[in-house]
Every structure is written in C-alpha cells, then in structure tokens.
Amino acid sequence: MDRPWWQGAILYHVYVRSFFDSDGDGHGDLPGVEARLDYIRNLGVDGIWLSPIHPSPNRDWGYDVADFDGVQADYGTAEDFQHLLDAAHAKGLKVVLDEVLSHTSDVHPWFVESLTGGAEGPKADWYVWADPQDDGTAPNNWLSVFGGPAWAYQPARRQHYHHKFLRQQPKLNWRSDGAREAALSVLDHWLAKGVDGFRLDVAGTFLHDAALTDNPAVPPGERRGYNWSHAGNLQRHLFDSNLPENVETLEVIRRRVEAHDGLNGGDRFVFGEFSEEEERCGAYLSPADGLHSAYTFVLLLARKLTHRFLQDHYATLSAHPAHWPTISFSNHDVPRTVSRFGGENPPPELAKLLFALLVSLRGTTLIYQGEELGLPQAKLAREQLRDPVGDLYWPYDGGRDGCRTPMPWAPGPALGFTTGAPWLPAAAEHADLTVEAQEADPESNLAFARAMIAFRRASPAMTVGGLEFLEVAEPVLAFVRREGEEAIACIFNFSAEPRFVEAPELDGAILLEVRAGDAELRGGSIGLSAHAAVFLRLPN
Known about the structure:
The chain is an alpha/beta fold. The protein has helices at residues 30-35, 37-43, 78-90, 109-116, 177-192, 225-229, 246-258, 278-281, 298-301, 307-318, 337-342, 350-360, 388-393, 435-439, 445-457, 460-464, and strands at 10-14, 47-50, 94-99, 129-130, 151-154, 159-162, 197-200, 269-274, 293-296, 326-328, 364-368, 466-469, 476-483, 486-493, 499-502, 510-511, 519-522, 525-528, 533-537.
C-alpha cells in the first residue's frame, strides 16, 4: 500500500531502565534490549520506542538530559546502541528515540555556560532568564508541573531561570537562534546514525510568551478533580507554553526530520506528546503541517470504561480529518491500564478486552512494555520510590514508579529482570504474569496479544481504515473499521455481566475466531460474555 510505514504501525514502548538488565547492576540497558529483540519481534509489532538513552543525572530519570549526543553510562556505550540499532533493523524492527528538546539538565554544558558566561555571553539567551520582582519573588505566576513556582533564582546572574518541570530541568529558549539550531542538530546527529524517528517529549512547550504574561486561573466553577490534583492545574497554561506559534516550530522540526528521508533507508517518523491546550499548540495538525502524528493524555488519564471516553476523543479527532493520531492507553507516566479501569483487583478478563480495544482503534498504536501481559499497577512503599512526583505528593499520589517496575520475565526474586538488586523492586503483583508462564499458556494475555496484533496486521481495515461508531446501548461499545471493500465490526462488552445487543448492521456478518470471551451471533443480534471483545466481518 502506498503509505508511510508509520501509518497504522504498532510501536512497542521500551522503558529501558526496567526492561532487561544484561550485566547484573540492577538497571536495564541497551544490550538487555537487544537480548530481548526476538520477544519484541514475535509480538508482531513494527518497531520500538526507547525511553531517553542519553547521559543524565536522573533527577527525572532520563528526562533531564546532560549530553544529547551520548549514551547513559549504565545503559551501555555508543557502540552498544549502534549494535542494537543494526540488530533491530536486521529483524525488521524500526527504532524510535525519545528526545527531550524543550529543556535540559542543569548540568548540561549549555546551561552551565548560560549561567556562568554572564548576560552577554555566547549562550546567555539559550535559556529563559528574567529579573526577579522588586521583592525578590518570581518574575510572574507561572507554576511548575512538579509543584511550586516555575522559576529558580541564580545569584550568578541575579536572575531567575524558567523550568516547567523540576528546578533541575531549565527550559531551553527556542526563541534563541543558537539554541534552536543546537536542538535541531540533535535530530540530525541521530538520524545520521540510522534511527527511524523520534517521540518528542512535551511537544507543546517549545515556545514561551516573550512578554512573560501571567497565566490565567481556571475559573473556580470549572475546576474538577484533575485541576486540584496539582497546583499547576489550577491555571491555564497559555503563556508559559502551548502558544499558537508552536505550530510553526513543529513544522520546522518535521521538515528537519524529513530531510533525512531516503538516507540510510526509509521514511522517518516524528510524533509528539501533548498534555495541555492540545488544539491551540498543534496536537491535531496534518502530517503536512505539523508533526507526522501526536498523542494526548485524554485516553491516558481516562478511568471510567464508558462510551464517552472514546467517543468524545474521536469526536475531537473528526474535527481534524487530515490529522493522523497516535493512540496510547498506557506509558511510563500513568498508572497501568487494567488498574486504572479495573481498580485494585481488576477482573482477569479485563486485560484482554482493553488490549483488544487499544489495537482496534484507528491510528499508530503505542504498546507499553508489559501491557501485552496484562500487568496491573505495582504497589510500593514510600521508601521504595524513586520518582520525584511520588515523593512530592505522598501519600495522596504515589507517583509514577508503580508503572515502571521491572519487566517480569521468569520466576525468581527479581522476576528474571536482573541477577543483581533491581533499581525498583520487582512487583509481587506480577509474579504470576511472567513472560515464561504466559509463553506456556495458549489462553494467556500474551497469546491473545499476539493473535490480536496478527489480526490487525492482516487486515487493511483494522490497520488504516476509517472508524464509525454504531448505535448500541451502554455498556457495550461497537464500531466498524472500514477500508475499501473490507469492513470489520468491533464489539466490546464493558460490563462484568453478560450482555445482549441488537445492531442491524450485523445481519449477515461472520463472527471471526479472534476474540476475548464468548459470543453468540443471531442475525442482527449478538450475546456477549462479561468483558468480551469480538470481531465480525460485515457483508459487502
């Protein structure tokens, strides 16, 4: 089919530090990823998205980069990365890197020079510096995602610098020609090595308002639980980030990446993460106007398994028909999917339903490591936490470590992840869900995940087709994926009880073998077992 490889592709998100440790130091590494490439390939996915691999002091576990051209020492060497890249390509897998170009670590040489070189130094404007107010307080009301003012004072310059996240993550100033070119050159560096593309962290935050205008408050009557979950959510982030001008920056980035198309083989792919004011800052642009694709936190934050969580999102997408979405239910930043929707003790069959739903949706799909195993969120004690967010809001919020615990490969103290002491404890909740155990069980979540991915890959409708919702009563969700003469009905029972629904579109349909749970088709009606996911081929 005449389309780019990434359209309808499935990428497997590898959180490197927790995937597989090859040398026993307790930290996952690049040789460990290479050692498990056959496992990833056998899932049937198209490629891997690696969490940041660059040197970092790990204040935010790799999302505070100290050297964009290097490789984190406990992950391996530049040679290890090249070996992994070549091995992945030899197995038919694409490799996408996670690049954090909106900010750096405060130990990055760029920031050190910006700080110490004075207001007239060559990198003076590479970061966002501003004078304090007369009473020494921050220049404006901008709040950090990780709590408190989004400014930190530095006596060496007698100024504050802006940080949207941790104090140790100063904001790179993309309004500076020198800083912007340096950031874009990072993409050139890794594309020249043969990587297939990038996931861009916080892609709505490249630009800030040069006048440092205060962010407006969310009106009290509009505040919901999400707004009260972090102080920063009580203001609309219209001026510290998410500017309409960001659209132009996204196009510059995409064109820079596309300049490498055809070099070292194949088209390149760049997609972004957007978490605030998505439409305003370019999340829903077409592949010809912004990035190739994007995902938001709408599906990642959803906790109620209803029609609305999907239908509202696809209603938003339908207003931007030229946009190609990236779809994700789970990643390194949010609680694992089965726990988010199923609570502390999710029913076993829920994992298959959610995986089937994820793979059935229109877009480029992201699968977070362990999602194919149906892993629930891990419960950790405060002294086990490594994530600064968990420490900040304990015990209200345990942070992100519960979705970052080591991948469970086999029985044992560290569940096969390492021969040493793991950087985060292996989750007791995962002991019965190891890869080894599921490989031996033809009814396992893993077996079902492989079958679902194979089904999608074999079907043009499921891979790139349009999506049309059918009118059926809650708690059943139904939609049709259609491409050319192929039409597949996808039906999901969100209930823990059997359900029976009528849909005239099903009359004459053929019930397909790939399914979770049981179903009985009678003309234009179908009976579904609890949390069933079924698929039917519709007549032409």
